[in-house]
Amino acid sequence: MIDKLPTLDPFVIAGPVIIVVADIIVYIAVGKLGTRSSGKGGKYQPFTGGEEQIPARGTYQSELFVFAALFMVVEAFALILAGSFASPTNFYPLLFLAGGGGIILVVTWWLMLVGGVRF
Amino acid sequence: MIATEVAEILIFPGLTFFVWIAFLFDWLDRKTSARMQQRIGPLVAGPSGILQPVADFFKLTSKEEIVPEFADRFIFFLGPPLFFAAPAIGIIFIPVFGTTAIVSNEYDLLFVLFIIGFSALMAAFLGYAAAGRWSTIAMGRLIVQYTGYEIPMIIALVTPAVLAHSLSISGIVQAQQNIWYIVLAPLSFIVFIVSALAELEKPPFDIPSAKTEIVGGWMTEFSGRPLAYIKLTKNLSYAFLSALAVSLFLGGPLGPVLFADPVLQGALYFVYFVVKLLAVGFLIFVIRTALARIKIDQAVRFFWMVITPLSLIQLALIMLVWWK
The whole model's pTM is what? Predict the structure, then answer.
């Protein structure tokens, strides 16, 4: 049961909101200095540098998605490590770091060395 | 009270102060690289050209803003200010005058980690929204590079948190009263600086914005006000990541206490902070000027096979030796 909720500085929420609002207001105000135009053809075409235009959506190797999934696992591992200092001893954080980190690094290195990741 | 807090957030030592620091960083960056390359650098606007970044910003905002035919108009319009908001929000958690930031919370380091990720995501969105040849290629490079540097950066930032037993940036600064964490965790500092170079797209990791390969990278289709905002955001991120390094590894504004008067001592803390900030910034200016760009596969390999293990080794050493 929670006896006492931690106190929260209201500006932890209000601060970012104030900055985003001020930022958008200034952005709109600064926009009055120049002109804005949109349309079709001519100068509104994407810059190609003389090359053939490619589709707006790029094509990627399917291995990239395997790599992205691995990235998500490691990201979660790193974020769990962020909370490890709350542990009363260093045994479990070290065990988690050595075990998890070791497995992840061996898998990643293997994936890269056998050419499982192409960019 | 509320007005004071809002003024601190928006003016000093918050947003406006850091925007000027961002302009200063831009000028110092250009001057340093010019000197290292036997050039003069900015010279005309202001003394020694110090106002050149400000002049460039207003010149760009007064130019025509062209929205390409196939661009996603919503992201094209709203993306640049949201991209700017990421480092702008991050700076309010950085202690500048004393050991407490304008806004502080027990878990603000996690929030800052989210902000760093959000910033890279917004850059990718902007590249996608522009729907151009070069911006599409750059967006792919940006995401791939992000998968490389994000993990070691998180682990490098977690190391001071483990040392201080706190996920609050202000708490970590307070825990460095006796010793700066760069002494206890030098590898984490190096990992953070290398990862910051990749986050900032500075050489040798300027792969997503490589001018000689992909024109302007993911910024190719932007002009006028959005381009001015994007360039300012990159410089603000520069200042923000340097300030984060100062807070987590160099004791933030802490330094020798010379005055009994809290106001004078507060001013001295501010001077310490700015000096450390410029020192970290200068380190990045020199590295980025001295090194040449590497390829995307080399960058990712380097991060996964060298930098990530280094960050894990440093964290393991800290847990073994310095666990409280």
Answer: 0.91
Using alpha carbons, select from A58, A62, A60 the residue that is nearest to residue B131.
Answer: A58
Residues of chain B with Cβ-Cβ distance to A85 below 8 Å are 161-162, 165-167
Share of chain B above pLDDT 70, in %: 100
Nearest to A82 among B132, B134, B167 (CB): B167
Domain boundaries, chain B: 67-321
Q: Count residue pairs from A and B with Cβ separation < 8 A.
A: 197
**Dist. CA B269–CA B99, nearest whole Å:** 9
| pLDDT at residue A1, rounded to an integer | 44
Q: Which stretches of chain B drop beneath a pLDDT of 70?
A: 324
3-class SS shares of chain A: helix, strand, coil, % to 5: 60, 5, 35
Q: How far is B40 from chain A (nearest CA, A)?
A: 31
Candidates B221, B224, B301; nearest CB to A46 = B221
Query: Is A19 within 8 Å of B10 when comparing Cβ atoms?
Result: yes
pLDDT, tens digit (0-9, with 9 covering 90-100), for B139-187: 888 888 888 898 899 999 999 999 998 889 999 999 999 999 999 999 9
Q: Which long-range contacts (CB under 8 A, 24 or more apart) does A39-46 make?
A: A39/B69, A40/B69, A41/B69, A43/B66, A44/B66, A44/B67, A44/B68, A44/B69, A45/B68, A45/B69, A46/B68, A46/B69, A46/B70, A46/B130, A46/B131, A46/B132, A46/B133, A46/B135, A46/B220, A46/B221
Choose, out of A5, A33, A37, the residue to mutate when testing the contact with B (most B CBs < 10 Å). A33
Distances (CA, A) of B2 to A20, B5, B7, B100: 17, 5, 9, 17
pLDDT in tens, A3-57: 555 567 788 889 999 999 999 999 999 988 888 888 887 788 888 777 776 655 5
Mean model confidence pLDDT for chain B = 91
Mutate: best of B58, B144, B207, B236, partner A, most A CBs <10 A: B144
